[in-house]
Amino acid sequence: MESVNIKELNERIQKESAFVDLLSLEMGKVIVGQKHLVENLMIAMLAGGHILLEGVPGLAKTLAISTLAQAVDAKFSRIQFTPDLLPADVTGTLIYSQKKEQFEVHKGPVFANFVLADEINRAPAKVQSALLEAMQEKQVTLGDETFALPDPFLVMATQNPIEQEGTYPLPEAQVDRFMLKVKVGYPKKEEEKLIIRMNNSGEFPKASKVVGPEDIRRARSVVREVYMDEKIERYIVDIVYATRTPEDYGLASISSFISYGASPRASISLSMAAKAYAFIKRRGYVIPEDVRAVCPEVLRHRIGLSYEAEAENVVPEQIIEQIINAVIVP
């Protein structure tokens, strides 16, 4: 009976995920290379999570999310985080109208389907927490009223790793609210030649509308239906537990590098991201390779490094790689 259901589910997901190729194609018109970034943006969108991008300036981080918003025909807003920004500049505020003799609600830029929080580490903690509360609760309270945020709602925050003067690093508890943290690298030589050509010609291609917000909402509910076996669930829990008690998995050599392991949010994010990855690959069930594919993005910001790790230049990616190699694959 189960195999019949899997077959039916597979066929249904093949049909439902057809738009993924179209979306990739449209984004490929504007974004040269950066396939890893585009794929992770789609995973975040389909899994209902938020994404934090880290990379030097000029790597198409901003362009990627605005292009995605164009292709999905969704409302897009950009908030440039600066040290003088106030929480009301993000969420909105109440303004007194003398004509009506009452307070009127003015919604902030957070009321959009796709919100780009540019250089999130440049704004003070209270502004960051105002945005992160909206991300977690999917609602904003202005005065006595609470307003639901649009659905789908995706926050893409960027941070610059090279310039740390005058920045406010995100606290670990707030970073944990991002489903994925993606490190954006430089393009390849051939891709950079194409970027130069595209900019010199002055003809910038634009993404056409491929899907609507309602298609994304439907796809999200289908992603939740992707079949995950109990063995895969156990595999996810083992990976997360290996970040907390590495000795139990024969990884005593890395225990001194970890000050704290991943939270239960990591297990939830890992399972949802693996389901979204399977959906993108047009499969109705999750395999261990799906979990391994999304592991670095889900875990890299959730493992606390000790002073010893920093002294020896150990990065989270090295720890994650060792964990993936040590945990038994079902």
Explain what the structure shows.
The protein is an alpha/beta fold. It folds into two domains: 135 residues, Orthogonal Bundle (Helicase, Ruva Protein, domain 3), CATH 1.10.8.80; 167 residues, Rossmann fold (3-Layer(aba) Sandwich). 50% of the residues lie in helices and 15% in strands. It is built from 15 helices and eleven strands. The strands form four sheets. It has a five-stranded parallel beta sheet. The protein has a two-stranded antiparallel ribbon with strand order 3-4. The radius of gyration is 21 Å and the shape is globular. The protein starts with a helix and ends with a helix.
Strand-helix topology:
Elements: H1 2-16, H2 18-30, H3 35-47, E1 51-54, H4 61-72, E2 76-80, H5 87-91, E3 92-97, E4 102-107, E5 114-118, H6 125-137, E6 139-142, E7 145-148, E8 154-159, H7 172-175, E9 180-183, H8 189-201, H9 213-225, H10 230-244, H11 252-255, E10 258-260, H12 264-280, H13 288-299, E11 304-305, H14 307-311, H15 316-326
Parallel strand pairs: 1-8, 1-9, 2-5, 5-8
Antiparallel strand pairs: 3-4, 6-7, 10-11
Helix pairs in contact: 2-3, 2-4, 3-12, 10-12, 12-13, 13-15
| Physical arrangement of strands within the biggest beta sheet | 2-5-8-1-9
Question: In which range does the helix fraction lie?
Answer: 40-55%
CATH architecture of the largest domain: 3-Layer(aba) Sandwich
CATH superfamily of the largest domain: P-loop containing nucleotide triphosphate hydrolases
Q: Return the CATH topology of the largest domain.
A: Rossmann fold
Number of domains: 2
- List the helices and strands in order: HHHEHEHEEEHEEEHEHHHHEHHEHH
Q: Quick check: average pLDDT?
A: 86
Radius of gyration: 21 Å
Which blocks of ≥5 consecutive residues have pLDDT under 50?
none
Number of strands: 11
Main sheet specs: 5 strands, parallel
Distance between the termini: 22 Å
Portion in beta strands: 5-15%
Question: What's the CATH class label of the largest domain?
Answer: Alpha Beta
Structural class: alpha/beta
Name the shape in a single word. Answer: globular
Q: Give the helix tally.
A: 15
